[in-house]
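Quick one, tokens below. Sequence please?
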């Protein structure tokens, strides 16, 4: 595998695990403030991020490459209201989209068509993640300042269930 593509993919395992940490922190914030539904939503999001790390790890294994696990940074955000984690979530997903695009660009430069095909799933996934983050912000702005509205949003987020992502489902 091209050295640059390898390095970026190996690094992405760490970035995805950091994302899981970050969303665990969001879940803790909501849990500690009585919004168990939002906590559930981010608990599942954290699980999905760990899955993303596992997908990249699996790809390296399947291509005979060494996986080097790196130290995970401490998530150190603090929040003053229920909207702030949601906005931080969107900013983070945009950052991750940029990382995926960088890997894709490196793969394209190296004519690594297998990696490009592999990354297609993540390109779609990032669109979905940004879309979810934007929807959560819009809903919080629209309904979050009303106690009944916030209660309903929390109930809705409580309904989110975990699904194994397709690249791991047939592992
Ligand atoms: Fe792994 Fe939220 O992107």
């Amino acid at each position: 595998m091209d050295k640059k593509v390898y390095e970026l993919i190996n690094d992405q395992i760490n970035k995805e695990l950091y994302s899981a940490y970050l969303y665990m922190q969001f879940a803790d914030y909501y849990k500690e403030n009585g919004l168990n539904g939002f906590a559930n939503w981010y608990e599942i999001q954290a699980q999905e991020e760990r899955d993303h790390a596992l997908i990249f790890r699996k790809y390296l294994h399947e291509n005979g490459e060494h996986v080097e696990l790196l130290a995970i940074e401490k998530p150190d955000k603090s929040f003053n209201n229920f909207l702030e984690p949601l906005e931080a979530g969107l900013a983070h997903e945009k950052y991750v989209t940029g990382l995926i695009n960088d890997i894709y660009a490196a793969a394209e430069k190296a004519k690594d068509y297998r990696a490009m095909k592999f990354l297609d799933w993540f390109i779609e996934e990032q669109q979905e993640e940004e879309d979810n983050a934007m929807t959560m912000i819009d809903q919080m702005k629209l309904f979050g300042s009303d106690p009944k509205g916030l209660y309903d949003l929390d109930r809705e987020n409580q309904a989110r269930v975990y699904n194994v992502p397709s690249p791991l489902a047939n592992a």
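Residues 113-143 form the longest helix (31 residues). Residues 16, 19, 49, 52, 93, 96, 129 surround MU-OXO-diiron (CB under 6 Å).
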